[in-house]
Design brief:
The chain is mainly beta and 330 residues long. It contains 6 helices and 19 strands. The strands form 5 sheets. Strands 11, 14, 15, 16, 17, 18 and 19 form a 7-stranded antiparallel β-sheet that branches.
Length: 330
């Protein structure tokens, strides 16, 4: 009855380096040094400190790499220190970058440093470990250098795909443009929670069992001809907006036949869907309502399934009743 929609995250850079595995985790993260604020900074070392980088934060850097060998553990040095937001686990970081061969100093890949192909990476454990270690704890406005240890970098076959020697590694010069911190995920409720409200006269009677599952009794009367809505439990959570993905428990009853035609409670789990993917009357009932609320809506055919109905349980002239617990917004 309901459709769902997931919006994929699009990452900006589609380079050769990414194609051969930069965005695929290759090994577990090694221990890094904790700072006072709790972010664990990968320490600098003699190799990363020996990478010579010149140029301003808003321009492509000049990088000199000469006579260096692959470090035992990944090293990270700060060339320019910014004072913006700190990149932490779970954040998405937007960067400009230059990537070079450690053994030859040749550039393997780079962005344009003009915003046209900035790269966006989620610090969620899916990056090559050395790349993520270089980004973690960096501040917006900074330029950092990372030199990847063998265990934290690309494997031999991936290096050869880039035209590098099997014993080579990568030098990363990363400019931190911005950091996006996702909104905390609030788990959905199990049932409506809030202040009970009295339904208007003439509405179906609703009785809840111990788990909150509603039983709906249709009045012995003709249904209303216009959509009617009432709040049975007033929640105090976030307000549902048009286009939101929402999680709800619901029961749907055909007023004309007094038969349940759909019910999430009977399936043992709530439903999640986009407000744009349901019948007009159902969307009208939940958009503008708050999480935690329970609403009852009476939907005439024109705002339900129209003249075609939804056989075999809903005819073209049938009025629908939904009792909906609004449990969360994705």
């Amino acid at each position: 009855m309901f459709s769902s929609r997931k919006v994929p995250r699009v990452r900006a850079a589609t380079s050769l380096v990414l194609a051969v595995g930069l965005a695929a985790s290759l090994a577990a993260c090694t221990t890094t040094a904790p700072t006072a604020d709790g972010c664990e900074v990968t320490p600098s070392g003699s190799v990363s400190a020996a990478v010579k980088v010149s140029g301003g934060i808003d321009t492509a850097p000049t990088v000199e790499v000469s006579g260096l060998s692959v470090p035992v553990s990944t090293e990270r040095s700060v060339v320019i220190s910014g004072d913006g937001d700190v990149a932490e686990t779970g954040d998405t970081v937007i960067i400009e970058y230059t990537i070079l061969s450690l053994l030859t100093g040749e550039t393997v890949d780079e962005t344009a440093y003009d915003g046209s192909n900035s790269a966006s990476f989620a610090l969620d454990g899916t990056l090559v470990p050395g790349f993520e270690k270089t980004l973690l704890c960096s501040t917006v406005g900074s330029r950092v250098v990372g030199v990847l240890a063998t265990a934290d970098g690309l494997d031999a076959s991936q290096l050869t795909q880039l035209g590098l020697a099997e014993d080579d590694s990568l030098v990363l010069v990363l400019d931190i443009v911005s950091v996006e911190t996702p909104e905390p995920v609030v788990p959905p409720l199990s049932r409506a929670e809030g202040e009970a409200q009295e339904a208007p006269a003439g509405f179906p009677a609703v009785v809840l069992d111990g788990d909150g599952r509603p039983t709906v009794t249709i009045p012995d009367a003709a249904p209303p001809t216009e959509l009617e809505l009432a709040v049975l439990i007033q929640g105090d959570g976030a307000e549902v907006a048009a286009g939101d993905d929402v999680t709800v428990h619901y029961v749907g009853v055909n007023w004309n036949t007094q038969v349940i035609f759909d019910e999430s409670w009977a399936r043992g789990e709530p439903a999640t869907f986009n407000t744009g993917g349901v019948i007009e009357g159902f969307a009208a009932a939940i958009v503008g309502q708050k999480v935690g609320s329970q609403v009852i809506v009476i939907i005439p055919p024109a705002q339900g399934y129209g003249e075609a109905g939804s056989p075999p349980n809903i005819g073209g002239t049938d009025t629908l009743v939904f009792v909906v617990d609004i449990l969360g917004i994705a």
